[in-house]
Each structure stands twice: as C-alpha cells, then as structure tokens.
C-alpha cells in the first residue's frame, strides 16, 4: 500500500489509497504515543518498547513517503505580501497542515516528559526530518510551522526567567498551557469525508502543559537544536522571523543554562555567517554577552561547569568571535562600532594579562579568536576610533608583551603570528595590511628576484658572488658598504616588538629544554615565520631624504635620489637585516643538538618525529622567502643536509652535498640511520618540498638524486609528493634541467597508483609553463595557513590569458612536443585523473607554446 502512494496522482483511486495510509498511520500514533505514562513505563522495562518501533516506522514513512504529510507546493505567505494564495484553498493543504500539527504536538509532549529522555534524541531527529520535507514541497507550511516553533521558544525563554526564576523554582502551583499545534477542525472539515475518515484528528487533543522546570529546560534545548539544523532555510524562507530569533537566542545566551548557552552560541554564529549582524542594539547586547563569557572562562569561577562543558563553551565562543570579526578579501565583513571594539580590547587585555588565558588549558580556537581580534584591530581602524591612538598604542604594548611571553610555552602557536606581524609592520611604518609579494626566477644567474619589490637574492655561493663581482668590475669595498647599510636599517633598532621577539628567540635557543622541547621548537618556528613574513612584506612607501624630515614618495624623487631610495629599500628587505648569519647559526645548532640528543635518549619515536617536523617546517619557511635571502652558502648547505636526513644513511655517496658545521660525517650518518625507517610520510613529503626550493648552486646533483629516489619509492604518497614538487625542482635548477623530464618523469606515466596519476595530471600545467620559462614562484600574503603552505607556481602567460589580457613582452620558450605527449595518455585514466586535467586551465592554453 505504501508503494502505491509513491506514484500517487489526483485520480480517485490513488487518493483513496493515500487516505487509508494516513488513517492507519494516525491510529498507530494515537494508540502508542498518546499515553505518555504508558510510554515512559515501557522505556523502563527490558526489550524494545512499542513506542520506539512506532517512532522508527514514523521516521521511515516521513523519509520514504513524504506525500503522506505534504501536499503540492504552495507559495509562502512571505512572498505573497499577505495576499491569500489560491492554492491554499485546496482542502489537501489543510489536511496536511492539521496532520502535521497533530503529529508535532504528540512528539513535543514526549520531549516535555522527563521519563521519556531515552527517546528524546530520536524524537528530535524525526521533528527535524518532518520540517525539512516542507522546505521545497510546501514552503508556506514550513513558514507557518517554523513561526510557531519560534514563538513557542520565545515564550519558553520568558517563562524560564519570569516563572521559574532561572531554575530556582522547580514546580509551578498551576501549570502553563500552550495552544500551539492544535488541530483546526474548521479547516479539516473542508476535506471531503474528513469527519468520518479522520475522527482521530478531530478528537480533543491534550494541549502542551508546563509544570516542571525540567520540562521548560528540555524544550528550550531541543527546540534550539531543531532550529539550529534548519537555520539556513529559516534565514531564506522565513525572513520576518529572523529578528525574533536574534532576540531569543541573545536572551538565552544571557540567562540560559550552560547547555542552552552552548547551542545559542552555535546558533548565533550560524546566524552571523548566514545573514550577518542584525541591528546595532542587538550587536551591542551580543558584545556585552561575549565579553562577560570571555571573562568567565578566563577566571577561576567556572567550577560549576564540568570540564567538558567548559571546553565546549570555549570552542563555541571562539567560533562566534571569529564570525563577528570576520575578514573577507582584506576587508572587515561587518562594520563594528568603536564602542564594541573598545569593549573587546579591554576584555582581551583582562583575559591575556590578568587571566593568563594563553598559559592555561584553553581551547585552541578561543586562543586563536583572541589573537584574531588583535590582528583585526591592528589592521583595521574603525571610523571614529582614530582619536584613541595613544590609548590603543598603550594597550597594544601590553598585549604584544603578553603574546611574546607565550612563545615557547605551547605546541601550537601559529595564532600568534598575525597580530605580531602587524605590530612589527606598524612599528616600522609600513602599510597596515601586508601586500602580496612574489618570487620569480632569474634566467641569467639562477637567482631569485621579487616582482613587486626590486630585490635580488644571493645565490648562496660566495665564490660565485665574488666571481660575478669581479666580472662586473666591483671591489670588495662595496660589499662592506652593503653590509654596513644593512645594519643601519635593521628592524632590531626600529621595532620594539621585534626587539622583544629577538630576545625571546635568544632565550629559547639557550634554554635547557627537558620536557618542553616540543614547545621550544614550535616557539622558534613561530619566530622564524614572523621574521620571514615581515621580511617578505612590502617595504615602506615613504622614506626620508638626507637630513630632512620631509617624507617623499618614489614618484617625487629625482633619478639620482631614486637610485639611493631603491638601494636602501632593497637592503631593508634582506633577511640578514632581520635574522643574521649568527642568529641562524645558533638556531641551526639548536636544531642539530636537539635531534642528536633525542635520537640517542628519547625512546618516544612519535615525539622525535613531531620535533623533526617542526624543524623541517621552520627551514621550509625560510626557503619560502628565498628572494629576500642574503645568507652564506655554509648556512644553506647546513639546511640542505638537515632536510636530507631521511635519505643520507641509504646512500654511499652524497654527491655535491657539503657537510658544514662542527658535526662530523659519522655523526650525521648515525642520525640519519636512526631516522631512515622511522620517518613519517608527512615528514618525508615536507623534506621533498624544502629540497625543491634551494638555489641551483646548492647540492643540485644531490637534490636531483633525492627526487629520483622518491619517484621510485614503493610508497605511493612519497611518489605523489615527488611528482607534485617536480616542477618546483625544475624551476630552481634553471632552464638546463629540462632533460630531467625525459629521464625521471616520463616513466611515471606507467605508475598504477591513482593518487600518483591524479597528481601528475594536476602538475602538467606547471610543468609545461616551467619548461616554457614563464613560471614564477609566488607566495600568498594571507594568514590562513603557515608560510610554507602559501607558496605556489604561477605562469604569467596563462594568467594573462585567463584574464583575457595580452602582453607582447611575454614570450614563451618553445617546448619540445616529446616532453609533453607521453602525459596525454593519462586522459584515458580514471575519472579523478581526467578531472585533474580539466581543472588545469593552464594545460588547455599550452597549444601556443608547444611546437
């Protein structure tokens, strides 16, 4: 019979079948779910209660045969501007509406009963599924039912405070009766033979009655959960109800119990994400509530909450704060008033300085949200907040010190990077937001230069640089002058924040780690990333000329002064002015001694691998700003062999890899032998990425050998990483390395792994552009990920074509067809591999550069 309803039409036979199904369904619900005392008594016994069976049957019917409860689509009253829609006259609509109200009232009465708690979750799911069926099939009914739910929840929130006094009164002398979800007999009787066929619906139903506090609390919690699952649809289909939703959830956040606070915070976060902040009054109220909750979780007055509830509250609060202070395309998503900003700044100071919330076991998302607030305030000055500059600077100094003191005290401190980078840039007078910078290859000498700032990187080989200087007719005296100039513009003397960070780095390097080794290494990594981001950001747009205090822009400079201006800004962007060779040498020595001691004495291999991963991430972060390098070759070779530890013990010859430093070859071999078989796949992939970024003068033969070894590795994840970063290796080795495509990559076409084939199809675009000598290694300026995850290859020609622009100066080098055609056979692979080709718009535009 149910199968017949699935193909129901308006013919009398099918309508009669549907009526029979509805009548049987209503009778089952009436017999087994009406008597709440009977239902609760069954739940206390062993075995499967009849109520659970009926609820499962109800869920099955709603999911598989929604036409039992839904009529044909009827437009929402919201869209008709109050006018009566002709389709609402259909008696079928009134029958479905009353049937749904009748079912919902039965289910709500079960949620209202404490003894039925074992099936509350199941009932809540059924209510959600039933309401979701109306979203598209009958939006009008969805709007009407949701409106009743919201109105009822609002009344329950008021009763919670007014009648139950927030839980101090447990039982009312006289129960409160609600007339929601009642069957309208007049509407139902419009349906033919309704009085005879649906007498169960017309029988007098018991209304919802609230006597006990727990009933009010349960309904608040469950209704909030139901609305949370439907919030996106409510914001689109029930726009007029959104203001009442805001007021209700804000009130629950203020006065509700902890579980109700949690779900209200989650709902408010979704409301902000879906429809934005509602009004200034509600926003002010919300900020006061969040400030109070922040102070509560940072104090020691949360003993009434369990540890699990406190952790959930911190997570929900952090999520909500991130939504309020959201940034989209380098602009604040919402316009916040100076009052709200000031209130939150005062609260953050109390939490970080007085409450020491960073030093406590607090949810990471809450720590991240507070640092995000500081980044927001440092980056965007709201209108009307400019006059408080002195107050903001004083507060910023206190906050920055608190953040710096936390470096080296946690295994995860990435959230400290954005606010501290902005603080340093502000000290140096840079633009508030970091500009995008990119790295491009220099075909002449294999070096690297930035496209947005005129910065040339050193190749790292001192002999090469000296030979180049002699060829150009330079004298050693000019190199000394260059070094002196770098020191005079060092940010160590220009930024108080960076001075404190440098001091903290010295402390961490000299610290006797003990059990805090992971925290210390993560602290060093964070400081390196802060330094690299500041170094790579755009230089100051204004500078002083001579002894005058007048600032001029580059466009106003004379040609002679422009040369001086460009030279000064060029030197300011060198890494040595931020982190000199001595500092890098001390950091390297710390890494080396740490790995040696851990390999010898630490039996926890997982801990060893975590520490090694942080070291590799730090080195890769340094390599990601290679355009800003002025680093000695010895330092670069040290970094190279440290990244090569997973392979050194397996090779008898290390080719052109030079071992620099006090450590001996034997000691390096012992370290490597302990790591070879235990290195995780993630660490090995990170090492492959790092090795692909070195200049061609640094161990080019050895790095090529590592890629050859990795492409032949038995593990598909290692082969996938080698394929992914192979274009990066070609880019760093220069134009004379194209033969490696024939030697190493063509054979990978026969690889049976779908993951490797898919990665290869995605990498074809970068590979062709690299062979055509048009790629540039770029980095994003956002703080969404760690710095080493923000670098990528991009082709100038393809980006111009994608933007439908032409540039006659861009001339791609001809690529041999034999280098590319073997990869075409991958198109015959799986769907994922074919999709890999389709998403690479670069590959589709290569016909003009392939002969």
Q: Which key phrases capture this entry?
A:
5% strand, 851 residues, 59% helix, disordered C terminus, 10 strands, mainly alpha, globular, two-stranded antiparallel ribbon, four-stranded antiparallel sheet
Main sheet: strands, sense, barrel: 4 strands, antiparallel
> What class would the helix/strand composition place it in?
mainly alpha
Helix tally equals: 40
Number of strands: 10
Radius of gyration: 34 Å
What is the overall shape? globular
Residues in helix, %: 55-70%
Measured between the Cα atoms of the first and last residue, the distance is 68 Å
Q: Provide the spatial order of strands within the biggest beta sheet.
A: 6-5-9-10
The stretches of 5 or more residues where confidence is low (pLDDT under 50) are 74-88, 430-488, 538-573, 839-851
Strand fraction band? under 5%
Q: Residue-averaged pLDDT, rounded?
A: 78
Which secondary structure elements does this structure contain, and how are they paired or packed?
Elements: H1 2-5, H2 12-33, H3 36-43, H4 50-64, H5 91-111, H6 120-137, H7 139-162, E1 171-178, H8 185-188, H9 194-197, H10 199-202, E2 208-212, H11 213-229, H12 231-237, H13 242-255, H14 258-275, H15 280-298, H16 307-324, E3 327-328, E4 331-332, H17 338-354, H18 364-379, H19 389-406, H20 417-427, E5 437-441, E6 448-450, H21 462-471, H22 476-488, H23 496-510, H24 517-536, E7 543-544, E8 551-552, H25 559-572, H26 581-601, H27 605-623, H28 633-643, H29 645-648, H30 665-675, H31 681-691, H32 700-711, H33 716-724, H34 726-733, H35 739-745, H36 754-771, E9 775-779, E10 791-795, H37 796-802, H38 817-820, H39 831-838, H40 841-844
Antiparallel strand pairs: 1-2, 3-4, 5-6, 5-9, 7-8, 9-10
